[in-house]
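Q: Now give one record:
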Amino acid sequence: AVWVSPWQAVAGCRLAQALTQYCVGANYGWLLAEGLFLHKLLVLAAFSGERCLPAFLLLGWGAPVLFVIPWVVVRYLYENEGCWERNEKAAVWWIIRCPILMAVAVNFVVFVRIVRILVAKVRAHQVSRGDTRVR
């Protein structure tokens, strides 16, 4: 049997917490990247997804690092208790939540714009066919 010190167990648990927060952030980052990609496809007729791929990769995989690393540092300095599973200081928790809420808000705006574009395209298509139900 391998003996694990309490410090190693806590460090592993904290690493798992940081990785979990990164994965949650990456989920929201990729959701935003997909929404922006779809918006670009609908708006620009000559849109090349390959040209924007590095930006989408950076948004999906890189953006979460920008708030997870500061969260880990602040957590270590100001709320370094247990496995970091509890969030007793709201300011520390907002380091993670604020970027996610911003991604959700931007994605909502993109979603509304996509719906408006699709509705306009459907109406234009129906009017061009002479469909009297639209008029």
